[in-house]
Amino acid sequence: MSIYLKKSGEYMETCIFCKIVKGEIPSSKVYEDANFLAFLDIRPLNKGHTLVIPKKHYETVLDIPDEDIKEMSHLIKKISQALSLAIAPDGFNIFCNNNQAAGQEVPHLHFHIAPRFMNDGHTFKWSHGRYKEGEIELIQEKISKFL
Ligand code: AMP
Predict the structure, then answer these.
(1) Which of the residues 74, 110, 122, 128 is marked catalytic?
(2) Mean of the pLDDT values across residues 45-69?
(3) Which of 9, 43, 93, 120 is the least buried, fewest Cβ under 10 Å from its Cβ?
């Protein structure tokens, strides 16, 4: 029986990235320390596309403790630098999908670092919305209240 416990921060039996952490399934690791792991995405946007994960199972950025995400952001920069030197792309995207609605397929927090090349055929375009008169101020205030 599976022991999939949401947001426990502990080892998740059914989580594919937890299995990578435990060495139960193979991965092409580029970096590992006590708390984090970085490995190549098996279905890369471009070659060298790397995923950075915490070893503990957190589902989204809202679940990881502040201290850990701080450490993780340093690591993301470090790996971006290594990737830039190794692959020499024209640019790179760093992104993190949070929850299914945002395109998260693997519910274990991960940041993508994807090398980009001029005219590589990929786009990050969306149809731009518009605010009605006065709406932007309302939303600005709504968000600010929680900060
Ligand atoms: P996301 O849509 O943000 O959840 O992205 C999940 C990513 O994990 C996808 O880009 C997959 O190609 C990648 N992925 C899934 N399984 C593996 C695996 N076993 N090893 C490496 N990458 C994987």
Answers:
(1) 110
(2) 98
(3) 43
Q: What CATH architecture does domain 16-145 belong to?
A: 2-Layer Sandwich (3.30)
* Rounded distance from Cα 106 to ligand 1 centre (Å): 7
The residue ranges of every structural domain in the chain are 16-145
CB 76 within 8 A of CB 113: yes
Protein residue whose Cα sits closest to atom 22 of ligand 1: 41
DSSP string, 82-116: HHHHHH--SEEEEE---SGGGT--SSS--EEEEEE
Please indicate whether residue 101, judged by its CB atom, sits closer than 6 Å to ligand 1.
no
